[in-house]
Amino acid sequence: MKCFSILTSISLLFPVLAFMPNQKIGTSSRLNAWVDDAVGVTAPVGFFDPLGLSANKSDETMALYREAELKHGRVAMAACLGWYVTAAGVHPAFQSTLSSDPLLAAQQLPAVGWLQFVLGCGAIEFLAEQIKLQPGYVPGDLLGAAQWVDNSDEGWVGYQNREINNGRLAMVAFMGIFVQDLKFGNYGDQIFRN
C-alpha cells in the first residue's frame, strides 16, 4: 500500500509540469517546425513534452505519438462518461444486477460481458488498422475528414485543438477518479454528496 501511495503522489505531480514554461526541445529544425505548427500546441502551455519524448524524433514517430495521444484521450473521455453513468446505477445491458461502484461492477460483470467488451474493442482496432492503409490517411482521422478539409481551415484546427485538450484533461481526470475510488472508496458525484 505504501508503494501505491508513492506512485499516486508521483502521478499527481505530472499535471503540474503542464504549467512549466515552454522550452524548445531537440536540435532538428524539422522537429521545431513541427512543434510550432502542430495541432495541439495551445496557450498557455505551448508545446507540452515535460519528459522530452519528442526530442530528435522523426515525423513518422511524432505522427505515431499523436495518434496514440488521440486514441488514449478518446478512450479516457468515454471512460469518464462511463464511470459516472455506472456510478449513477445505470447498467443498460444488465439492469440493476451490478454494483453502482464501477470497480465492483467490473468485477461482477459476467464473462459474456467481458467477451463482448474485448471483441468490440478488437473490431474497432481492426477497422482502425484498415483505415490507416488508405492513401492520404492523417493520424487519428478515422472518419476521413482530411479528405475534404485541411489545417488551413481555422474552424477545423480549433476543433482538433479542443479534442486534443479535452482528451488530455480526461486522461488526468480519469486517473484522479480511479485513484479516488481505489484508495478511498469514493465514486460518483463528490460535489453534491451529503
UniProtKB/TrEMBL annotation:
Pfam families: Chloroa_b-bind. InterPro entries: Chloro_AB-bd_pln, Chloroa_b-bind. Chlorophyll b 1 binds at R74, E125, L133. It is found in: Plastid, Chloroplast. GO terms for cellular component: chloroplast; light-harvesting complex; membrane. Chlorophyll a binds at S54, E69, H72, E163, N166, Q180. The keyword Transcription does not apply. One of its GO terms (biological process) is photosynthesis, light harvesting. GO terms for molecular function: chlorophyll binding. The keyword Acyltransferase does not apply. Residues 1-18 form the signal peptide. SUPFAM superfamilies: Chlorophyll a-b binding protein. It comes from the Eukaryota. The light-harvesting complex (LHC) functions as a light receptor, it captures and delivers excitation energy to photosystems with which it is closely associated. Energy is transferred from the carotenoid and chlorophyll C (or B) to chlorophyll A and the photosynthetic reaction centers where it is used to synthesize ATP and reducing power. This is Plastid light harvesting protein.
